[in-house]
Amino acid sequence: MTAPSQPQHTAQPAGLAIPAGMPRRQTPATRRPLDLNRLSLNQATTEPYTLAEAAAACAQAGIGWFAPWRHKIAATGLAESARILKNYGLRVSSLCRGGMFPAPTRDERAARIEDNRRAIAEAAALETDVLVLVCGPPNGCPLDEARQMVEDGIAALIPYAEQHGVRLAIEPLHPMFAADRSVIVSLGQANDIVQRLGSPWVGVVIDVYHVWWDPYLDREIARARGHIFGFHVNDWVVPMADTVTSRGLMGEGCIDIPRIREAVEAAGYHGPIEVEVMNRDLWQKGCREIVEMVKNAYMLHT
Amino acid sequence: MTAPSQPQHTAQPAGLAIPAGMPRRQTPATRRPLDLNRLSLNQATTEPYTLAEAAAACAQAGIGWFAPWRHKIAATGLAESARILKNYGLRVSSLCRGGMFPAPTRDERAARIEDNRRAIAEAAALETDVLVLVCGPPNGCPLDEARQMVEDGIAALIPYAEQHGVRLAIEPLHPMFAADRSVIVSLGQANDIVQRLGSPWVGVVIDVYHVWWDPYLDREIARARGHIFGFHVNDWVVPMADTVTSRGLMGEGCIDIPRIREAVEAAGYHGPIEVEVMNRDLWQKGCREIVEMVKNAYMLHT
Predict the structure, then answer these.
(1) Of A51, A133, B4, B95, which has the most beta carbons under 10 Å away?
(2) pTM of the predicted model as reported, rounded to 2 decimal places
(3) A130 touching B, CB under 8 A?
């Protein structure tokens, strides 16, 4: 993969510049061979391609897990999507994504909860028991109230989730997304919500991109024991061309992924590992080429 | 001020897009007239201009505080800088910046501590009792070790700081800077360091841009009581053209600045309020125009 495109404003005035220096990883690239059976392709990594194209590429690469996104499911059709995935022998590690709870009016909030119910039903139809929740931006609401709307929204979904056998996985996003994508911004905050809701149907998904900076990450991963429903890998590359679409493949950036993975395993999670790399340069490549790169980066740097 | 320049990659694939919606402020723009006597111009806001130019603009605008940066002091000369500021009747709210502690070798770390000693002496010469610490990126070190180097570096400076009557103000930066600017990324983490070091010469500076996202901000501001050495204002604007140089003036973004200011005041801080807006579009304007805009934004939206 080529280097991410450079940001428009790389050069900084001399006085504001800081000598470069990303963190060095503490752990060797691979201390023991990673189990390929845990690798799951998150469909955002192959965003330009259809579900059928991405599924075919996974099957060819010997990848057994897949994590579809709802807009792709909608484009292909739910029943057809389920059929394609089954034909390729792919299991669904999670469905991306529910959430988006905050809204200024009661009606709009109710509509969003209703949409989450549809997402739960879709997850069940795809035979996955995990729905990833990107909890949503403040959407014109004060930050504290928006956070309460998230918690209330998840609480409202629990009976429906239980009924369908689908677990709700809160994905804390990086704090840089607090204004425009998610008011849930740390694993500690997500753990607090899980603890308050006290339901086996509510837990977290841990994405290294969103949590690697956290000085209390080890403590919060340990605290998440028993409610870790997913684990996502990718990498943090600086300078950052774009906050959303310039993530790196594992090994291209500074995140000590093996260290975080081992902490997540020590906390009892041994399920699928989703590779979710939203990257415009990567998306220029062919679907099979992307999947091969994903597989190599997974084997070497996760 | 014109809208910040658009990022190169604004458009996202439809499925990844999120309905826009920044948080609404909870507090009215100004509940009571803000005291202009507390306003301080942080020199980064007028980055293209010399210390003499910025000081003159402050004096003309009736601003009584100024926060110079070391590269500007170096360009003008320390004694001459002190003379200029005194001639204009400007008091120095803080000197920006010390810090930058992590480095892979013992010699380099020692050199950085030595540079911080020079910064302390400069602060004293400028008759300010606050040195802002931007603690530095990992600089090739593992993240945990880099964080320890910060704490060790600050500890090493305490006797010298005390001797010069200069307080060391840790500025936690936004977590998006963990790889390339500061391994200290939350007020809670900074408070923990202050607590462990247990010296009246070590505290924090709170910059709304860096901390507004924190779900535990109120708690940590309250915990910082007695060791808040400074308060910086600006605003968070999305979409973000650049992580460093597209900050907004107060009122242009989504941060509930009055709410945070009141929490900081409730925790006992009533000192200068520095306006620190690093923004390439703003920097295109004349120095006096910038300072007028700063003053207006301060009066209306802080």
Answers:
(1) A133
(2) 0.92
(3) no
**Is residue B25 included in any domain, yes or no?**
no
What is the b/e burial string over A157-195, where b = at least 16 CB atoms within 10 angstroms of the residue's CB?
A: bbebbeebebbbbbbbbbbbbbbbbbbbbbbbbbbbbbe
State how far residue B277 is from chain A, nearest Cα, in angstroms. Answer: 12
Angle in degrees, 0-180, between the axes of helices B78-87 and B51-61, rounded to the nearest 10 = 10
Task: Taking residues B20-38, report their average pLDDT.
Answer: 65
Query: What value, to the nearest 5°, has the Cα angle with vertex A122 and ends B11 and A295?
Result: 60
The answer to whether A21 contacts chain B (CB < 8 Å) is: yes
CA distance B220 to chain A (A): 14
Q: Which residues of B touch A179 (CB under 8 A)?
A: 22-23, 213, 236, 238, 253-254
The interface predicted TM-score (ipTM) is 0.91
Evaluate whether residue B154 is within a structural domain: yes
Give the single-character DSSP code of B252.
Answer: S
Count up the domains in chain B and report the number: 1
Instruction: Please tell me the distance from the alpha carbon of residue B302 to that of residue B297, in angstroms, as a whole number.
Output: 7
Give just the sign of the alpha carbon dihedral B205, B207, B208, B213. Answer: negative
- DSSP letters spanning A38-58: GEEEEGGGGTTS-HHHHHHHH
- The answer to whether position B1 is within a domain reads no
Is residue A2 one of the residues assigned to a domain?
no
* pLDDT at residue B9 tops 50: no
Q: What is the pLDDT of residues A143-196, one digit of tens each?
A: 999 999 999 999 999 999 999 999 999 999 999 999 999 999 999 999 999 999
Q: Check CB contact under 8 Å for A213 and B178.
A: yes
Q: Does A8 touch chain B (CB under 8 A)?
A: yes
Instruction: Identify the helix (H) or strand (E) that includes residue B118.
Output: helix B106-125
